[in-house]
Each structure stands twice: as C-alpha cells, then as structure tokens.
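User:
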Amino acid sequence: MAQVLKLSVAVSVLAVAWPAHAETLNWEACVQEAWAQNTELRIARANLEASQFQAQGAYSGFLPQVSASASHTDSKDGATTTSSGTTSPYSTAISVTQNIFAGFQDQAKVAQGAANSELAEASLAAAAARVNHDLRSAFAGLAYAQANVTLTENIMHRLQENLRLVELRFEGGRENKGSYLLTKAQLGQARFEYLQAQQALTTARAQLARVLGRAPPDDLAVTGAVPSNEPQAQPDYVRLVEQTPDYRQATAEEKAAAAGIQLARAPLYPSLNLTGVSSRDGDQWYPEDPRRTIGLTLTVPIFSGGRDYYATQSAIATHAAATTTKMGVDQQVLVKLKQAHAAFVESVEKLRVDEAFLEAAITRADIARAKYQNGLISFEDWDRIENDLILRQKTLLQSRRERVNAEAVWELTIGKGLVS
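Assistant: Predicted structure:
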C-alpha cells in the first residue's frame, strides 16, 4: 500500500493543479472556443458557404431569363426648327428567354457546382481534422509544460536534500569530495532544467492560444486531460480510406473534372432558345400601341478556330490526371493509416511499460536512500538509482504526451474532426 501511495504522489506531477489566478481551461472549453474562433476553420466554413451559393446559382440555366425596359427618345428634323418638327416617342418592353438546349452545358454546370461543393465540404473536414490534431497536441503540450515545471522543481528539491545528505557524510569523513562535487553539479543541472521548463511553458501557452484563435496570454493554463480511446485491434482500412478528407477531396476533384469535359464540349453542340417580347410604343406615356413577338432561335456552331476542340482535349487530360491522383491518394492514405495505427498502438504499450518502470524506480530509490544513510550502499550505487528514478519520472511524463500525440495523428489520418 505504501508503494502505491508513493507512486501516486510521484505521478501527481503529471496532472498538476495550476495557480488559481491563471485562466484555466478544460478540454471541452478549448474545443468550443477553437470551433468558433480558429482561423483555419472560419476560412473553410466561408469557402464552403461560397461554394454552396455557386452550386445553387448553377441551376439558373434551367430557368427563364426575364428583363424589362422603358425608353423615351427626343428626335428633331434638322430642317425644322419649330416645335412641330419635334417628336417624343415612348417605348416599354418585357422579354422572356427560355433556353431549350445548350449542348448539355447547364447539366455540366450543375454537376460541377455539386462537385465543388463536395470539395469544399471535404476541405472543411480536413481543416477540422487538422485543428483537432493541433488542439490535442497543443493542450497536451501545455499540460506537459505545466507538469514539467512541477517535476523539475521537485527534482531540484530532491537533489538539494541529497546534497545535504552527502555534505554531512563528507564533513564526517564518510564520503569523498568527488561525490560531494558531483551531487552539487547535479543540483546545478536541475536548476538549469527548471529554468528551461519555465521558458518552455511560455511557448506552450502561445501554441495553444494560436489554435484557439486568440492572442497569446501570459497566464493561460489547462486542467484535466485530453479524452483518449484504446486503438482498434484490426481497423477496416478500406472503409477508413474512403472516409478520409484526402480521399473525399480527390473524389470531388475527379467529379469536377468529369463535369469539365461535358462543359468544354457544350459549344460544339447547337443551342436552341425561345424568346418572347411584349412591347408598347406611342407618343405619350403610357404607350398604347401593343406589339408581341415570339421567336425560336437555333444556333449551330461551324468553326471556332479549334478553340472548343482543344478545350475539350485539355479537359479530358485534366480528368485523366484527377483520376490518377485519386488512385495515388488511395495508396498513400492506406500507408499513412497503417503507420499511424502502429505508432498509436506502440505509444499505448510504451506508456504502460514506463508506468511499471516508475513504480519500480520509486521503490528502489526509497530502499537505496535508507541503505546509503546507514552506510550499507556506496555512493555510486545510490547515485545510479537516484538518477534512474529521475530518468523514469521524465520518461513517463514524455510518454503521456507522446500517447496523446500518437492518437492525435491517428485521428488526423482518419479525418476525425474537432466536433464529431
């Protein structure tokens, strides 16, 4: 029971409670703030909104185009200078034009608009995944920096006690000067590492503030931990690949390129428009002489200097490139998924191993300290066990951060967003 208690005290530096005057955020508060204020997410949402408006505008080709006009013209015969030679005709008109066939251009615009909207959605998903990764890393980084300050301070205090113990034995003639000087140098190293930890804390605060979309504060702190999950034993990589933002972006780009072929071919087809005009003319307002015109216009392209032909060939080549890119993305994402999953699994197991090592190091250090005080162990053996304890404490702290980062990379690779 005593060993378990000592272990919990030693590990408590990993979840340090920061001073009350600091602005302290938990994970949920960070998620809400990043979702609302992160610059990358705001840009991606604006781009998605713009693409959705463009996709809706693509349907305009299927609807009639209506326009109205009114005119008043003063004209005067050059040979006449009297008012009787002046006329003031008025004219009003309303026209309606309905496209009947435009070489499948309208269908292509709708398909391209939908594909661009899908691309923007995938880009937003990719941005959300990146922000999720960055926020997890930044939150874990600040938690690590806070805990590292406490850990290095505790190590410094422990080495101060060690120095007093060695100094007493040295003054009593039971220890040599070299051991005393070595312990003193180790204390100096601990003070330097404590200074480094304080400097790193400032950087970690600025990194989290950047992800949150705010100016770097001087007293930002985090509390709690990032939610974690155990890695799956055998992920369904085929399904995961198809859900990743990279694959979705490549698929949308392929669809847009396919619609681009149809759009480039549209000028090669005839176009047919139905137009109706209703107008009134007269010498006074409101004109009373009505006129109505209905026309059907068929336009057949004959030769455009090869422009439309080469535009079509270019669109075909672009589609071929997009298709090949999609195949390459499929293969690349599969490799990334397997690498990220392997690193995730290894980080979880390494954390368990390091926790076991720390428990053993705490027990060995307590036993060695008692033996050294009673002269039952040499300084070299005691110093080696003390250094192993310090190393295990630092390693466990790093392993906890690496475990969070490994899961963050896994979620980034599968495209898990900040808000699911």
